[in-house]
Design goal:
With about 160 residues, the protein is α+β, with helices and mostly antiparallel strands. The chain is about 20% helix and about 30% strand. It binds adenosine-5'-diphosphate and magnesium ion. Its cofactor is Zn(2+).
Length: about 160
Amino acid sequence: AAMRHLPYFCRGEVVKGFGRGSKELGIPTANFSEQVVESFPSDISTGIYYGWACVGNGDVHKMVLSIGWNPFYKNIKKSVETHIIHTFKEDFYGEILSIVITGYIRPEKNFDSLEALISAIQEDIEEAKRQLDLPEHLKLKEDNFFHLPEGKIVNNH
Ligand code: ADP
Ligand code: MG
């Protein structure tokens, strides 16, 4: 069921999140606005996904993405957060983030400790890197979606 909507193309502005301290953990997550999240299929499974991401008209990088319940809205709305596997010189709040979600890793989980959470995320990142090198995922890195003018929203591609 998690795979039904994949590959999923999405483009939108990066907004301030709710300060869960992702950056302090070394894994900053670029949050999409509520409006972009609302445009996702309502039945898309929460959990950890991977794919490709590009900020503005910059390079396309590997990413891991979480679709989760948004604590700010008492867990009745979702949040969509992208960790790009690349070191950026500066934050990019307000910029347009383009992503294509190509695969699913696992459902959301609760962790007993911060260490357990961080090591799970490190494993997700390693899994994403491996999967994205496979031809069926790698080919989407070159998709025209990443070269279209930003006005063209290509959900349901
Ligand atoms: P917030 O709660 O505002 O989302 P985070 O701690 O999750 O704060 O940090 C996210 C911000 O960090 C992004 O909006 C972006 O501007 C910046 N950032 C820097 N490097 C990355 C990266 N590799 N992946 C995602 N966001 C990054
Ligand atoms: Mg974040």
